[in-house]
Write a structure and sequence with these properties.
By secondary structure, the chain is an alpha+beta fold. The chain is 34% helix and 30% strand. Bound molecules: zinc ion. Residues 233, 235, 266, 268-269, 271 line the site of zinc ion. Zinc ion is lined by residues 233, 235, 266, 268-269, 271.
Length: 287
């Protein structure tokens, strides 16, 4: 079962581990993602899930947008408290050669550019932060964002493993955030532990779980919470109706003149909603 686990380690670190094999597989199937795009979009979905792990209210949402100059960019993902995630990339079918280390080349697929982060809460203006993309490997970039834009020293590791046919074998991640006042020595020890972790996706492919990963890294950690993770989109035909109405009378009249049903597509989940001429005529009355 896809889920995330949050905890505290030694009163020094806030820790979160996530597993999301089925979630990323749903994204792959919905958007018909290439192997490289599966890894890239999957990591962004997991990253959004990790950042949503601290949300208290149902109304809180986070949007991650990687606007790079790579061949699959931009990539967008949204996560909420529950933790449901949704996301896509602009060019889902583009495949890249493996990197020199024989890995899916997410960094190249994302490219150079900017990472934008929007945090939404009820009754608050959305908070937007941005940083230059560092490596495009997603985990590094999110850690850099948290350090620079939110002033929380953090480490983020993310991995997605796909098989030869593109099916997701494993998808997992970890977030470690350093509490104020933690000594340099403790941070160096943590960095060493994380360096020796190896490939997260391979570990989860061979039976690792969020709990076992945290047990291994932090023998004395305390579990705070566990939340399920799903790929879920809140789009509906009604929402697209309102979008069509907002186009205005002239646009809707033009659509009716074409005598063809109108197909709308949700970018986040690729769900299609078809509107007949009759339905468009009804919307025109409301416009
Ligand atoms: Zn949708």
């Amino acid at each position: 079962m896809d889920h995330l686990v949050t905890g505290i380690a030694d009163a020094k670190f806030r820790i979160v581990a996530i597993t999301g094999k089925d979630t990323v597989e749903v994204a792959r199937q919905r958007h018909n993602l290439s192997h490289t795009a599966t890894a890239a979009v999957g990591r962004v979905l997991l990253g959004a899930g990790l950042l949503a792990s601290s949300f208290k209210s149902k109304q809180e949402r986070i949007l991650l947008q990687f606007r790079g100059d790579g061949p699959i960019s931009p990539i967008l993902a949204v996560a909420d408290r529950n933790v449901s995630v949704k996301g896509y990339c602009e060019y889902p079918h583009v495949e890249l050669d493996l990197s020199s280390q024989g890995k899916l080349d997410v960094g190249k697929a994302v490219g150079k550019g900017m990472l934008y982060v929007v945090r939404e809460r009820d009754n608050y203006e959305p908070y937007t932060g941005s940083v230059p993309i560092q490596t495009g490997e997603i985990g590094d970039d999110l850690a850099y964002y948290l350090q620079i834009s939110e002033q929380v020293p953090s480490a983020v590791g993310l991995g997605v493993l796909v098989d030869g046919s593109g099916f997701v074998r494993s998808a997992a991640g970890i977030l470690v955030q350093v509490f104020p006042g933690v000594s340099e020595e403790d941070i160096v020890k943590l960095e060493e532990k994380l360096m020796n972790l190896g490939s997260i996706s391979h570990r989860f492919d061979t039976g690792e779980t969020p709990e076992s990963l945290l047990n291994d890294l932090f023998p004395h950690w305390n579990k705070l919470e566990e939340r399920p993770l799903t790929f879920d989109c809140d789009c509906s035909k009604d929402r697209f109706s309102r979008g069509l109405i907002s186009l205005g009378k002239d646009e809707l009249t033009d659509l009716i003149k074409k005598h063809e049903p109108v197909e709308t597509v949700c970018r986040f989940c690729n769900e299609k909603y078809l509107f007949s001429i009759k339905e468009i005529e009804e919307l025109l009355k409301k416009a």
